[in-house]
Design a protein that fits this description.
By secondary structure, the chain is α/β, with parallel strands linked by helices. It has a single domain, classed as Rossmann fold. The chain is built from five helices and 14 strands. An eight-stranded mixed sheet has the order 2-1-3-4-14-13-12-9. A four-stranded mixed sheet has the order 6-5-7-11, covered by helices on one side. Helix 1 packs across helix 5. The longest helix has 14 residues.
Length: 212
């Protein structure tokens, strides 16, 4: 395996420190050499092998923060769509792949995957936000990101979900309804849960991503 450079985009949101630590550990677990860089410098994307956008907070704040980083959205498009580098969005980082988000208003997302981000409907006495461990139901059996993960428990903290075309849904979980918790389209991947908080299951997913 070639030397890896995983770039975690810093746009003022996300568990940057814990995400970096988790990626360093995942890189060790798969026996890969390389570096994990947290950066808001678009030039760091040029020699990145993998690109990650984490996200914690409200959709509107996160998308505004990302778009405020000079040249970042344009650089991401070039590296992901033209150069086909593997991309992973985590939590709100996944939600921003949508066309629109409806958290405390209406906001335009990146539009890289069709669909909108909507509030989870509270049912059967379940609390919102959805917080804690739930298992994955793999829908895309060919997913490179989620290989070996069917039925595994991962950690969630969210009140909104990505309502998208079933062709892009790679995993769901049951929380009153079946809700989308992982999406993928070509080299673009997104997970609603937090791999960096999901212990060995999360490290396995990050390792899978680094091997793509």
């Amino acid at each position: 395996m070639k030397n890896l450079k995983a770039v975690i985009v810093d746009y003022g949101s996300g568990n940057l420190h814990s995400a970096k630590k988790a990626f360093i550990k995942a890189m060790e677990n798969i026996g890969a050499r390389g570096s994990v860089v947290v950066s808001k410098n678009v030039n760091d994307l040029n020699d990145a092998t993998h690109i990650i956008i984490p996200g914690v907070g409200a959709y509107g704040d996160c998308i505004a923060g990302l778009k405020a980083v000079p040249g970042m959205v344009e650089a991401l498009k070039e590296q992901i769509f033209k150069n086909k580098k593997p991309f992973l969005g985590i939590c709100v980082g996944m939600q921003m792949l949508s066309e629109k988000g409806f958290e405390d208003g209406e906001y335009e997302g990146l539009g890289w995957i069709t669909g909108d981000v909507k509030k989870i409907l509270a049912r059967d006495g379940l609390r919102i936000p959805h917080m804690g461990w739930n298992n994955l139901k793999i829908k895309n059996k060919d997913s490179k990101l989620l290989k070996g993960m069917d039925g595994m428990d991962v950690y969630f903290v969210h009140s909104y979900f990505f309502d998208t075309d079933k062709n892009f849904v790679s995993a769901t979980t049951d929380y009153g309804n079946e809700i989308t918790v992982a999406v993928e389209k070509d080299n673009i991947y997104g997970v609603q849960f937090h791999p960096e908080k999901s212990q060995q299951a999360g490290l396995k997913i990050l390792g899978n991503f680094l091997e793509i």
